[in-house]
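Curious: explain these tokens?
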Amino acid sequence: MRQTDAIEEIDQIEKQFVELCDRHRDSMLGLLRLILSSASRATEVLPENEVDSDIRNVLAEIRAKEFVSAGEAAELFGCSAQHLRNLVQRAMDRKTAEPIPFRDLDGVITFPLAELIEWTKKPKPRTKQSVPKNKTHLKAVAS
């Protein structure tokens, strides 16, 4: 490709870019404003001691309850609420030796906090069996 052809191609790309920007100017400006406002909010971070205080307050509120939701228990134990729901399902299906303590209030699942904390301290047998790897596919690949 000659240098003049490359320059013409770059000029053509720039021209198409300008046309595209002109056509979508309002939406692009809206997007830019949204990005900039998000960035400015992200820089308005609370001082570290206030963040720690907020976290302590949330945890204190959770610990003050007798029964907690899956979201609150997840916050307390540092796992996802879905993981706790999966543990409840395994307990309902009787697929675990140490079922998670929960209460089903006509479809609303809650966790008795004291029992849940004690349950977390108990050792639990691993339920996932290691699956032996099928090495026959490696032989087929190697040949």
